[in-house]
Amino acid sequence: MLKKNLFNLFVIFIILLLFSLGSWQLKRLSWKTNLIADISNSFNSSPTQISANIKEFDKIKFNGTIIGEPISVYKLGANGSYGFDIYYPLLIKDENIMIKAGWSPKIIKEIKGFQNNKYDFEGVVFNFQKKNFFTPENHEKEFYYFINSKVLSKKYNKQFSDFYLHETGNVFKSLNLYKNNNIKIRNNHLQYALTWYSLCFIILVAFIIYRKKHEVRQH
């Protein structure tokens, strides 16, 4: 009897767990859908003047000075090809901020003609992504695998903001970089939810059939 009760409790726990995972994925689906809409609206909107109250996904315009050489950050291209996101350090008023100029299949070190010149920029605000478990450590030689304010402070010996700007203008046109102003974010949460719900349903049906057969045997 004890084994039977433990088995029933275990199966019920698995069913509830799978149902909870499916429901959690639906919440993630809603969050990701809203995130994609926010980013799309930002790129399609008109820029506003930079202010102290900017937040992620704001599209802003500003006057800034390029203050150093660019950083190349490893990033696969749209078709899976090997390449790099190219970032330049800017001084905007009294704040140091990185701006992503575009993507290149090769490392860019071009600074001639840019450094210490003021330009009118526009771009969308993004927070730096956190380094995940699979991202290699930086070797800080030719290129980087990830950047954040701490990495940038060490590189340039200056304090940097915790966000960067995705440039939507044409300041770096002469570098012939690929610019993706239609950022694609994977949204597979519906498939994940259906998977968890399907497993939940299959186990529930199997458990009901098992219970009915067991009751018939007892009678």
| Major sheet size, sense and barrel closure | 5 strands, mixed, barrel
- CATH fold annotation of the domain at 56-172: OB fold (Dihydrolipoamide Acetyltransferase, E2P)
If you compute it from the alpha carbons, what radius of gyration comes out, rounded to the nearest whole angstrom?
Answer: 25 Å
Q: What is the strand arrangement across the widest sheet? A: 2-4-5-7-6
Give the averaged pLDDT, no decimals. Answer: 87
**Uncertain stretches of 5 or more adjacent residues:** none
Order of secondary-structure elements:
HEEEEEEHEH
Give the structural class. alpha+beta
Q: What is the CATH class of the domain at 56-172?
A: Mainly Beta
Percent in strands: 15-25%
Distance N to C terminus? 16 Å
Q: Helical stretch count?
A: 3
Structure description:
The chain has 219 residues and is α+β, with helices and mostly antiparallel strands. It has a domain of 117 residues: OB fold (Dihydrolipoamide Acetyltransferase, E2P). Helix content is 37%, strand content 22%. It is built from three helices and seven strands. Strands 2-4-5-7-6 form a five-stranded mixed beta barrel. A hairpin with a 2-residue loop joins β4 and β5. The longest helix is centred in the N-terminal third of the chain and has 43 residues. It starts with a helix and ends with a helix.
